[in-house]
Fold this sequence. Notes:
The chain is of the alpha+beta class. The chain has 5 helices and 7 strands, in the order βαβαβββαββαα.
Amino acid sequence: MVSSSASHAKLPSIDPARFARDASRLTGVMAPAQLPRVAQELFDETGAIEYRIEGSVNLKGEPALRVELAFELALPCQRCMERLPVKLEVGRTLVLSREVEEVESMADEDEDVDSIPLVASLDLLDLIDQEVMLSLPLAPRHDEGACETAPGAEQGSTVASPFSVLSQLKRT
Ligand SMILES: [Zn+2]
């Protein structure tokens, strides 16, 4: 296991049931590009992902993991394809259940709680990758009117150009 509570070290795989029972906690910072699926969406490799994973056992005796993320990364804007900084804080509780379907219907009342199958080994890097992917905007865009415009293509010049073309035609 990781000795220091915050590190850039590779994330371990955990036994989620034991992690929950022991009320273990893991915090750290990683680069967005370290996450395989997230890396494919990035505009560049800037930013950081702070994670905090805490194990607990809920009132029904089920092991649960609380995953909290605070991250900053850059995506391409879907309108202008330029850099769009994204800053988010998300948190979700994952209940580890042998009977996922049953728990899922109950968890519907609370969006913040989800269930995942109780597995013997859970890859935390994969888990964080998935949680970040779920929280990214589907169609990230700059605010209306805030998109980067190509040099010389400012608003107004497109309106003026037909006239300048006309005046040029008149001259010839
Ligand atoms: Zn844009």
